[in-house]
Specification:
Layout lengths: L4 E4 L4 E6 L10 H7 L3 E6 L16 H11 L3 E6 L1 H12 L4 E7 L17 H13 L1 H13 L5 H12 L7 H13 L13 E6 L7 H11 L2 E5 L11 H15 L2
Parallel strand pairs: 2-3, 2-4, 4-5, 5-6, 6-7
Antiparallel strand pairs: 1-3
Helix pairs in contact: 1-9, 2-3, 4-5, 4-7, 5-6
């Protein structure tokens, strides 16, 4: 399987961290630093990304959820962006493994539709998939710019994302296309109403990929708690790690800290 999971920290609460499209677990450095004394963290590089670049596991939410659950103890799962979709699927499939759910900059459906006005424009998502074939690096650059857009310091955040994205090697092209397809077609809006675990939904007010309105709707649908971080964009743990940890505190406390 060759799935890379970095174990960090020594605290009593097990916590799984799942990153977003084209990135790797290294993006969570600030959260790991903030939580390592309270939690034992299992920081995953998803298939085709980072040190899991050569993993044979498909980047498919059910398959990823099962493989990660097999490799980690029952835990609080926290996912960002694409990782948030996988964490939601894991909570639905494996409630015995996902004891609480944290979702950062993610919703149960990313693409906009007639009955879902809060998502990203489908043509934009599909164009990314097409562009990957012809200009791999420029396409990733455009997506990073979308991630940084709306941040209090978009240029600084974009520089940070650029420095991170290839730090563990280039993501696999086939897997990146698979990830775009997942973002385009996945729809868990009905399913999240059946979640039995406590959940925290955390969004940046300035996020241009996962709107705060969509995240608040999702939290209400799931019976969870929504927190908006005022000056943050799509990746609120950059520059706002303390606020993200504060929003996760109810989940950590519910675990029995």
């Amino acid at each position: 399987m060759n799935l890379y999971i970095d174990r960090q920290g020594s605290g009593p609460i097990p916590l799984v961290l799942l990153h977003g499209w084209a990135m790797h677990g290294g993006v969570f450095e600030s959260l790991v630093t903030a939580l390592r004394e309270r939690c034992t963290l299992y920081v995953v590089d998803l298939p085709g990304h980072g040190y899991s670049r050569d993993s044979v596991l498909p980047l498919e939410p059910h398959a990823c959820a099962a493989a990660i659950a097999d490799a980690t103890p029952p835990a609080v799962w926290v996912g960002w962006s694409l990782g948030g979709l996988i964490a939601q699927q894991a909570a639905l499939d494996l409630p015995q493994s996902v004891l609480a759910l944290g979702v950062i900059g993610s919703t149960p459906k990313f693409s906009r539709g007639a009955d879902w006005p809060y998502g990203s424009e489908p043509a934009l998502v599909r164009q990314l998939a097409t562009d990957l074939e012809t200009d791999y690096h420029a396409t990733i650059e455009r997506f990073l710019a979308l991630e940084a857009m709306g941040s209090k310091d978009p240029r600084g955040e974009l520089r940070h994302l650029r420095s991170l994205v290839f730090e563990r090697g280039e993501p696999d092209l086939r897997i990146l296309q698979e990830g775009i397809r997942i973002l385009d077609v996945t729809d868990l809006r009905e399913d999240i109403a059946t979640l039995s675990q406590p959940s925290a939904w955390i969004g940046g007010r300035l996020d241009r990929l996962a709107s705060s309105v969509a995240m608040q709707w999702s939290a209400e649908r799931a019976g969870g708690r929504f927190t908006q971080i005022e000056h943050a964009g799509h990746a609120p743990f950059f520059g706002h790690a303390d606020a993200v940890v504060a929003a996760l505190n109810p989940l950590l406390e519910s675990y029995g800290e």
